[in-house]
User: What shape does this take?
Amino acid sequence: MATRKRLSPHFTVEEFDCKDGTKVPAADYAGLTWIAQNYLEPLRAKYGPVKINSGFRTASYNAKIGGASKSYHIYTLRTGNNQACDITCSKGGPRDWHRTLSAYRQSKRGGRGGLGLYDRFVHVDTRPTKADWKG
Assistant: This one.
């Protein structure tokens, strides 16, 4: 199957499309490429295949599923590269993935970006400030 954009060896932009069928805006490809190459590929090497549970969301879809009104999943709310995704890996658990992503965030972005720890997945985003939470 053809892809609009390969972000890294194992990730394509289609994996980040909104679940309502809306495609990721092309303006967000660079930020998603950075996430795929610097966070998701190393995570995949350590914990096996990574599933993108949620990437881009339209404002209406985000509201429908009860997402935060200023969610980083709504890429179009901000200019620049402020993208997000919720992920699971085939090995390990959310605490393992969160700990590893926290180390990557520190080494790759000087600690900036959002990391959310949930019971079944981890949220990661590229916001310009550090944010940590448990959901």
